[in-house]
Structure formats: structure tokens, C-alpha cells
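notes to self, project folder thing:

trying the whole complex as one job this time. last attempt i did each chain seperately and stitching them together was a nightmare. four parts in total, labels are on each line so i dont mix them up again. if this works i'll redo the older ones the same way
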Amino acid sequence: MLRLGILGCGRIGQVHAQSIGQVPNAELVAVADAMPAAADALASTSGAEARAAEDILSAGDIDAVVIGTPTDTHFDLIQAAAANRKAIFCEKPIDMDVARIRACIDAVEAAGVAFMSGFNRRFDPNFAELQRRLREGEIGEVEIVTILSRDPSPPPISYIESSGGLFRDMMIHDFDMARFLLGEEPVRVQAVGAALVDPAIGAAGDVDTAAAILTTASGRICQISNSRRATYGYDQRIEVHGAKGLLKAENQLESTVELATEAGFRRAPTQHFFLERYAQAYVLELAEFVGAVLDGKAPTPSIHDGLRAQALADAADLALREARLVEVDLT
Amino acid sequence: MLRLGILGCGRIGQVHAQSIGQVPNAELVAVADAMPAAADALASTSGAEARAAEDILSAGDIDAVVIGTPTDTHFDLIQAAAANRKAIFCEKPIDMDVARIRACIDAVEAAGVAFMSGFNRRFDPNFAELQRRLREGEIGEVEIVTILSRDPSPPPISYIESSGGLFRDMMIHDFDMARFLLGEEPVRVQAVGAALVDPAIGAAGDVDTAAAILTTASGRICQISNSRRATYGYDQRIEVHGAKGLLKAENQLESTVELATEAGFRRAPTQHFFLERYAQAYVLELAEFVGAVLDGKAPTPSIHDGLRAQALADAADLALREARLVEVDLT
Amino acid sequence: MLRLGILGCGRIGQVHAQSIGQVPNAELVAVADAMPAAADALASTSGAEARAAEDILSAGDIDAVVIGTPTDTHFDLIQAAAANRKAIFCEKPIDMDVARIRACIDAVEAAGVAFMSGFNRRFDPNFAELQRRLREGEIGEVEIVTILSRDPSPPPISYIESSGGLFRDMMIHDFDMARFLLGEEPVRVQAVGAALVDPAIGAAGDVDTAAAILTTASGRICQISNSRRATYGYDQRIEVHGAKGLLKAENQLESTVELATEAGFRRAPTQHFFLERYAQAYVLELAEFVGAVLDGKAPTPSIHDGLRAQALADAADLALREARLVEVDLT
Amino acid sequence: MLRLGILGCGRIGQVHAQSIGQVPNAELVAVADAMPAAADALASTSGAEARAAEDILSAGDIDAVVIGTPTDTHFDLIQAAAANRKAIFCEKPIDMDVARIRACIDAVEAAGVAFMSGFNRRFDPNFAELQRRLREGEIGEVEIVTILSRDPSPPPISYIESSGGLFRDMMIHDFDMARFLLGEEPVRVQAVGAALVDPAIGAAGDVDTAAAILTTASGRICQISNSRRATYGYDQRIEVHGAKGLLKAENQLESTVELATEAGFRRAPTQHFFLERYAQAYVLELAEFVGAVLDGKAPTPSIHDGLRAQALADAADLALREARLVEVDLT
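result (full assembly):
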């Protein structure tokens, strides 16, 4: 049995609390939030105890922490958790600054604690199946990875302002997916972007529509495109073109019902947003973390995966701002 | 080179004239119609000569006739064509009366002329591929055949009145398709029907919505359903459930374009009606006729196929009217 | 809070125990089975108490019973539960004999207890959405209902022998679905069937491949086809043709991953069997029961729905055995 | 009636000869080829006369020429045709050198003759419908255009060597499609590529797998990816993400037949290659040319469209070779 504490009782903390309830051998002992009311609320629905974060970090009855607090608090919490020898599950991004992520790696490795980066999409059953079949060689060597990722609607401007920008907040998931699928590290990044959805996003110094191309040393290509708005729902598609064929994973629609009229054939929109689409992925992600820690294995994606996705996001941001190709070294 | 004459210059005669223009080794020499203006019109667009029907039947420069006149004229034209040793392509139904069809068989077999029944759907590339793969054993023994067949909108009541009823006018195509796919002759027919689309069709003694079940001696099942109206276009689907799997042929849509909005994903309606959907089938059907006659082979579907489909239509009509299962013997 | 007891700890009892765990305001208090080991096993995984069936029926701490025992025990359990004023959820079929079902109706109505028949498919989110949109008039008046329902592989012969036959054991679900969708009671039944999958099923006096046509007084048609074996998985499709269009609900596939190679485009098989396909439906079904009982409302489908589906199954069985159309009166 | 001559009787010349036969008001008078046998062969199947190219260019009985010769001959033929006041249809690319294309523009505009660039894909009924609906505002302002374009297998190395490279030979079609769909001129080009399919293509100085990102002044994005090899056939897909939704055009498959087995659901491969996929497009393209010339209108795509696509191909080639973003000015 792994005894867990959750730091941060916002939306993602609540998701993880629910997941822990569905994972065998996992027990949610305590939750903490800077706003006591939030901690109390999650405590009451989950049956856990509300405690102060520092008490969770130092608790003798807790083996692992799930960090779902604002990004700028991750660094200190990781340091403290490592110092207290807790296994750590941390939401992406680990930190906005790769130098500080490296410092986290040092702390985690020095303490010898398990660390898992929260890239939930690797655990989507469709994407996971696609990647497994890819690794089994079903379509031979990977040549072109295409990732389309679009949100139903943009977040509030206040969120945008502290998000680190689209590449670090949104496309970072796709950078991780690119690494998951390419089978080689990207070495070059090109990126474009504009504020086409909402000029206020542009005024805040960010873009809402963007694309990137990554290439690996052997010439494999990954294309990514993002939009902060898709009228038809949460659009999450990947496809991989290989030497022997193509593997693709389509969106999941809200239902299988189809209507035929003189206007044609109409199917349901995609599942609305990430909480619906990745409901299963969140549970499987926590199960991977819990299982790995209990078995004494290193969970995946690792802290290095978190660092590398962040480095790609930084490179894309630079490529856009300087209108040039940027080389990266993720080794 | 096969030299052809067309009898009947209405819609279907025009389709066949166009098809002949696309079939190698086929030449349309002359056309005839009870209305001289219709014959002249088709003559001018096809480059053929307008002649009287009897002149076509006795012509020395014509090897084969395509009969596309009203059903009640078929009998005499077949007798005359056989007497004049012309190869015969005749639209369905050969005649409304199976006894008279048997008389046509006698005349055709006595004269030793080639005869092909006009069941165009066997030549639809999708249905033909499905049937070929079925015969090649791709899904093992046939168990359940499902045929859905729906027109975009009902014909005029005047047409209904002289049509012989839905089973002989519309479902006859599906009875032929059932025989094409089942791999055994049906021995029992059950049928239901009602005028749900237009009460005037009911007042004319016919139904516009109907279904039938056929069974073969070994227990294979074919389900058919028909409607005279489908708002989304011409609906023509078949599927065959076999011991090793399922083969199905879907509708062809007007385009591959799909629209995604908050209302979901919308594809195009089906191709509008039989002239669009079966455009290729009509050409391939004539090519089969021309090729078989030139090679001295018996074209398929034969005059016996025409008889059997009519017998099934009669049985279904009786089954509906007497509210009972009807046994048929097609051997 | 509704306090429940489960009678019968086999596969379906276990499914309901899990469902109760996911339904708010529902508490599983006790479970019973003729085999004490089965009751103990379910008690331990569900946290409920193992008791004797008679103790559950008379318990003061239990408000409702879920009956998932063999069919021939339903009658006595329903009588006892009604006498003890327990709300009753009973798996289909209520009984093999409609006269005995009528006696159950008398007992249930005399006692004034809630009763729900276990037709889980009405709660499949896709089928439920389709039916809701139908009732909202999205495609106008219903004209043709088509139901395709196929199991991945046949049950053991021992099961077949005590099943009451395909129409009462398997197609009964489709008869209920037909009633759910048609919007009118069927008045005529025709049916065909054969043992095409396994001759041993025929030797046991049953069929494994079957079809039926139901018609209503106004002429609406429902076509159903069943097979005990589908190599590609559990096939559960419905479509409804109406005056203004078509509504269909497709199968749910195991994943959205598609492979393209020189052999074409290959998607996943359907979800394997009813436990996977109807996982959500089982929870929603129990939630309906619990919610209705707590709110003092009559749950749907009712005991009368159970009776009517059984009457249609009897009629289809008779239609097959006597090779004739059978009239039914479900009012 | 427009009287045409074809220059170049290779594969594409033969396609255009067939198309002319299906276009009303068009007559193929003569054909020419550097290899007399090729001209004779096409003359005999098309019913046209075989002549020398210079005789076609100066002929009094010819109004328009269709240029389908090797690219390095286009320049002289265009000059001669303009001097002889023939309307000109010229296959892409007009010339490998944009300066020489500009000289062609001067000649064509000085002579006042009609000129159409052979970008057949604009006439694919699916792509044309998509673009029309885009222009009608169905999805609002264009934001992201995604074009996936893959050949079934690479051409011979000898072809590669004289092709001008993937961007000018293959992706040029996609650059034209990008301009057709974006609704604004691209101003920046980034590109990547590698020889992943065949090292011999790399040894010949070319790539066989490539991607590009174009952006317009207002920030619209177009992503393109190409491969010289797709095991599943000729892959030609486009999708456009706009403010109000998404429009996509899928591949056309060889048939609508689908097979279901324990391996899942398998549909047909895509239509094999461009002759099959764009058969209709080639006819519609010629019809546009013939119609425009007869009506005295300027046909589209124009010679300027040919220039601009070539300029984008040059920019992409430069972007790849210099590993940098390249600015272009197409105004």
C-alpha cells in the first residue's frame, strides 16, 4: 500500500484524488492547499485529512506526494519532498527555468527518491496502444509524426499571463508526445505562431495559434499544430508515418450516434475537454506511479522527460521570437 | 464489334446509349421509341439512326437489342427479337407474369439467342467486389445477408399504379441481390409493408415501406428493408455475416468533405439517386453483355435470374396480402 | 440512502455489486448465494455481509433487493420480496412463463412495491441518446427500426439447454429495444432461425442464427437479426429510419487506433462482450433504480415491460416452430 | 469549339488527350512528340493527327496548345505559342527558374494570350468543394491549413536527378494548394527534409521525406508534409481549421467494402496514384481552360500562380539547405 499526500487541491489535485481512489494499493492520507477551504473540501469528498503542506512533506504516515500546486511553488516543494525522502509525482511543467529543473534533478537523485513527471497523455489508452505498436515495429522505422492538438476555448487572460506562453503551457504536452513517439531526440526546432483567436492574448505577449517542426539527427520529422480554440471540442489526434505504414489515433466522440438528413451524416462532437478525454489516462498515470514506487522501479515519464519537454518548449519559444531555427541538445 | 439497337428512348434507354459509347467493341446503330421525337433526340445525341422498332428487330446490320420500353411491351419484343436471332438485353422486370416469362424463356432457348436480365446492381463495383470476396471464401459460409435499400423520394402515383407494386418494382432488385449473395436459392418468403410515406400510395393499393425475410433450405437468412423515401439520399447498403467474419458495402457519399463545428462532424449526403450511384454499374453491365455475346458465352444475370427474382417478388406480395409465410420453389 | 441486498453472486450479481459502489445514495448491505463460497467472495470484495437469502428478504436494514439468481428461482423470490415490501430489481427474464409473470405482477402491485426489469441496453449511453432524440422528434415518425445483435461466441450447450431458447434468452433484449424505439406496441411477429454456428445447438432443440420482423398496428416495422457468433466481437447496432431522417448508433471499438498498410485501413474490433460494452449501462441502470425508489417514483423498464418482452419472445418462438405469422396483444 | 494541339505525348499528354475527348466544345486536332512513335500512338488512339511541334505552334487550324513536354522545353514552347497567339495550358512547373518564368509572363502578356498553369488538384471535386465552402465563410477566417501529401512509391533515381528536387517537383502542388486555401499570400517559409525512404535519393542530392511551414502576414499557418512512399497508397488529405470550425477532405478509397474479423475492421487502401485519384480533376481542369478561352476570360490558376508556387518551392529548398527561415514576397 502506498500512502499519498496531495499538495494543491485545485482542479488537477481533485482529479488525482479521484484517481487514487481507483488505484489498487494506493491510499490518500492527506491533502493540502494554500486556501484551507479548498483543502477541507477535497478532504471531505475524498475521506482524507486536510493538513498543512509542510506537515504532509514531513509526515511519517505518507510515502509519496502528488504536486499539483502553481508552477512557481514546485521547486521548493520538490526540494522539501526529496529532503524528506518522499516519492514525487509532479505536474508539468516542473519549473519554467531549465536550470532550476536541473537543480531539482540533483536534489531528487541525491535523495534517491522516485520522481514522475505528469504527462498524462502517454497514458491515454489510444495513444499508449499506438506507441506500443510502433515500438513493436508494426509500421517499421518512424519517419513523420503529426500531432494536432486544440483546446475548445482559450483560458482567461490572467491564466495566459502567468502560463509561460503557449509553448510551455500547451504545446509542452505535444513535445513530450513527440519524444514518446519519435524514438530519437529532436535536435532542431522551428516554430510559428500568432494571436488569431483573441487579440488580448497577443496583447499579453502570447500566441493562441501555433505550429512547430522538430527534426532528429537521422532526419525524422515531427509536425505539431495547436490552437486555443476549436468549436467542435477538444481535438487530440496523432499519426505516425513509418516505412511500412501509418498508425493514427483519432478523437473520441461524445457518442456513436449518427444522424442522417438532407444535410448529410452528422456525428457527435469530440469529448469536450481534457477531464473527459483523459479521464482514463489520469487513473492509469497514477497507477503507473504507484505501481513503480511500490515495486522499487523508476516511474516513466521521468524528471529528465520533464526537463527535455521544457527545453523543447524554450527552444520553440525562442524560434518564434527570433524567427529562426534553434538547435537543441537534449542528451 | 457488336452492333446494337435500343428499343425505348426514355431515361433508361438514354443511360444505355451512353454506356454503349463507353464500351469497346460496341456500336449503337439505331434507336426506336413509340414517340418519334424521343427517338430523334437520342439519335442526335448518340450519333445513331432513328428507326421504327420493327425495323431494328429485323435489321441486317444489328446484332443485339437493348429493351428499355414499358414492361407490358417486353413480351412481344422478346418474341420478335428471338425470332430474328438478335441477342437480347432486357430491363427488369421481364414481365409481370411468370407464366409469360416462361414463354419468353422457351422462345429465347428455342432460338438459341443470348439473353441478359438488367439487374444493374450486380455490377456496382462495391457490390461486385463484396460478392467476389464472398465467393473466394473470405468470410466462410454465408449466414445472414442484410440489404437496406431506400429511394430518396417516391415516384408519382401514376407510376405506382402501373408498377406492379413495391415488391415487383423496387424490392425485385434486392431479391436479385439476395440470390447473388446467398449462394443458395431462397425457399421461404415472409414480408410486411405499409403506406407510411404517402397515404395516396396506400389508396393506390401499394405500400411504400416494406421488409422481407428469405430463408434457404440450409437455413441461411436474408433480411431486406425498403422505403420509398430517405431524406438523406439514395440508401444502398448490403452486409453479409459469415462464419469467419462480416463483409459490408457502405453508401457512396457525394464527397469526402467533412465539416466540424459545435454541432459535431458532418459528412455529405449519399449520392442522390440511381443514375449517380450506379453510373459505373450501367457501363459495366453493358460491357458484360457485349463481351459475352461477342465471345459466344451466356451473359449473367440470365433470363432465369429474371424469372426467379420475379417469382420472389410475387411470393412477397402474396405473403404480405395473406399475412402468411409463402414457400417458393425456384429450381 | 437506499440499502440493498443482492440475491445471486454469479457474474451478473458481481456486476451489480460494483455498480452499487458507484451509485450515490446506494449502500450494499448484504449478499446471498446458494453457494456460500460465492456469497463470501462477493461479500469480501464489496464490503457487504454474506447472509442467507431469506434473511435478506426479511431484513429490517434492507430496502431493496437485486435478483440475479437462476430464472427458475425468480418467481418465489419476487413473491417473498413483495410480501416483505422490498423494492425489487430483477434480471431478465422474470420467468419463462407469462402466466407466472402475471402472478408476479399481481403480487408486486398488491404489495405496492417498486419493480424494475433488468433490460440494461436501454441505459447504454448511445442507445439512450438515440431514443431521446427520437422522442424529441429529430427524425419525425418512426418507420423502420433495424437491430443487429450478435454475440462473439455461443455459450456452452448446458447453458443453451436451460436458456429457454435464443428468442427468450438473447433476442428478448432486442424485443425490449424494439418496444423502446418503435413508439407503438408490436402486434404481429414473424421469425426464422437455424443452427448454422454449431449443430450441437440444433441437436439441443435451439437455433443460433435468427431473424424476426415485428409490425405495429399503424404499420411500423422492426427488423432484428441475431447470431451466437461474430468473429469481430460483440456486435450491437441499431438504426431507426423516420420520416425526416435516420438515427443510428454504431458499435464501440476497442480503441480509436487505425493502421494503414498495403492491405488497407484497419481499425480495432468491437468491445469484446457485454461486460465491456455495457459497463456504463449497468451503472446507469442501477442509478435509475436507486433514484426512482428514493424519489418514490416507478422505475422503468417496469414489470410490464418484462412481461411484454417475454410475450414477444414466446410469439417469435411459436412463429419459428409453426412457420407462420403470429399475432400478439400486448395491451 | 476550341481546337487544341498537344505538345508532349507522354503519360500526362495522354491524360490530357483523354480529357479533351470528354470536354464539350473541345477538339483535339494534332499531337506532337520528340519521339515520333509516341506521337503516332497517341494520334491513333485519340483520332488526332501527328505533326511536328513547330507545325502545331504555327497551325491555322489550332487555337490552343497543351504543353506536357519535359520542363526544360517549356520556355521556348511558351515563347513560340505566345508569338503565334495560341492560348496556352502548361503543366507545372513552368520553368525551374523564376526569372525565366517572369520572361514567359512578359511574352504571354505582350501577346495577350490566355495562359493556364496545370495545378490539377484545385479541380479535385473534394478539394474544390472544400475551398468553395471556405470562401463562402462556412468556418470563418482561416487559421491553420494542414496538407498531407504522400506518393505510393518514389520515382526512379533518373527522374529524381532532373526533377529540381522534392520541393519543386512534388511539394509545389501543396504550395499551390496552400495559396488556394490560405486566402493570403505566404510571407515566410521554413522547411525540413531527409532521405529516409531511399539513401540513393540522398546521394542524388535530394530528400524523400519533408515538411514545411508557411505563414502569412496576418499570422495564418500552413503545414505541409510529404513522403515519396506510402505503403497504403496515394495519400492526399487537407484540412483547414477556422474561427468557426474545421473543414477536411479525406482520401478516396478504392471501394466502400469493409471486412470485419477478429483482427478488426478493414477498409480498402486509397486510390492507387494520381491518375486514379485525380481522373475527374484532369477533365474538370481542361474544361475550365476550354471554357475560359472560349468565353474570353482568364483561366485560373494563372501564370502568376505558377510563378508563385515556384517561388515558394525555391524558398523551401533554400530554407532546407541553409537551415533557416526564408522570407518571400509574392506580391
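what i see at first glance: The mean pLDDT of chain C is 97.
need to look closer tmrw
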